[in-house]
Amino acid sequence: MVEQTAFRTSLDADELAIFVERMLDNLIPDGQVGAYSLQAHVVEALARTEHCFRSIHRKYYNFGGIVEFNHLNSDHLAAFLYFLGNSCWKSTGDTVVPTKLFYLNKILNGLDLYFSVSLPSVFLLVHPVGTVIGNANYGDYLVVYQNCTIGADKGVYPTFGDGVILFSRSSVLGDSRVGANVVFGANSFVVNAKVPANSIVVGQYPEHRVLPNPQTVRNRLFDSAAD
What we know:
Elements: E1 7-9, H1 13-27, H2 39-54, E2 62-63, E3 66-69, H3 74-92, H4 96-109, E4 112-113, E5 123-125, E6 132-133, E7 142-144, E8 149-151, E9 159-160, E10 164-166, E11 171-173, E12 177-178, E13 182-184, E14 189-191, E15 194-195, E16 199-202, E17 209-212, H5 217-221
Parallel strand pairs: 1-3, 4-6, 5-7, 6-8, 7-10, 8-11, 9-12, 10-13, 11-14, 12-15, 13-16
Antiparallel strand pairs: 2-3, 16-17
Helix pairs in contact: 1-2, 2-3, 3-4
């Protein structure tokens, strides 16, 4: 049996709830947040964050076998705020507070990621300033860098397999069908395209090219022991 590593947080659940509520009160001061307790939803969001971060085999996520969440790491906080808004919405059906959490994430991190988007349980955001993550169908082990766009064309969103990386300024739009283990190179762009598994995409539609990808995304950035 594999022993589970510890999970360390820079703030406990109570402190984190107060931290987020204060930011909401200060940055979106409409007077409606203070009476709403986020504590129960923070506990669930932290559990989801822990599950996600345990699979990330990367600096700032794993320190000597200890998995860490740091509220002062903006990538960590961006993922946590998504989990918090999504958990709150799923649990209560409320849209006001989740919308504010979405807005807070945009203010703090420049990330447009709505609370109702169904991200996988394991994903990695890498300084995602200027990134828009839309309501696509996502597989696990998704990695998104800065200034990326995942969006619709005529109301249709992409579908992604497991293990996809979008490097900076890449865009995937419309009825794009993306297989597993696919890397979108910086500045790449596709719309309504079929991208086979184990590929690297370079260039821009309609002249983008698909090259073989010899290395799995999971072994590249995530813990292969999670199999």
